[in-house]
């Protein structure tokens, strides 16, 4: 879901993607994905953006109630303030998940074919050794 209110307010304040990306300490591409709704904007980011744009969070925040593609991963992220551990949430588009599933299935089939070829070679080696 494109963040129309955020875009409108950002434009009113004459900020571009690069400005907000630098302010949030993320790449311009990552910020663009957040504004397009491809990646979730965290509560902390909404707070920081609202301060920069001199607006209430409620006036710029838009959430997609139908979005249910949220996955979390235990990991460690290094930031300018040091290392932070915990759960971090990210949105993964469904088409990417499906592509990954198809790729995994293809790899499983290739592994089965490889295993069958190895077994056939082992049998052939045993026959030749006799």
TrEMBL record:
Residues 6-60 form the HTH cro/C1-type domain. Pfam families: HTH_3 (PF01381). It comes from the Bacteria. InterPro entries: Cro/C1-type_HTH (IPR001387), Lambda_DNA-bd_dom_sf (IPR010982). This is XRE family transcriptional regulator. It comes from Chryseobacterium candidae.
């Amino acid at each position: 879901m494109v963040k129309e209110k955020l875009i409108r307010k950002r434009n009113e304040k004459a900020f571009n993607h690069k400005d907000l990306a630098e302010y949030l300490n993320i790449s311009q591409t990552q910020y663009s994905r957040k504004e397009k709704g491809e990646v979730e904007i965290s509560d902390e980011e909404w707070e920081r953006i609202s301060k920069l744009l001199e607006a209430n969070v409620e006036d710029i925040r838009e959430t997609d109630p139908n979005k249910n593609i949220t996955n979390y991963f235990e990991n460690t992220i290094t930031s300018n303030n040091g290392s932070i551990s915990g759960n971090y949430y990210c949105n993964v588009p469904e088409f990417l998940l499906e592509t990954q599933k198809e790729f995994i299935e293809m790899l499983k089939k290739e592994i089965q074919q490889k295993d069958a070829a190895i077994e056939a070679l082992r049998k052939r080696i045993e026959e030749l050794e006799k």
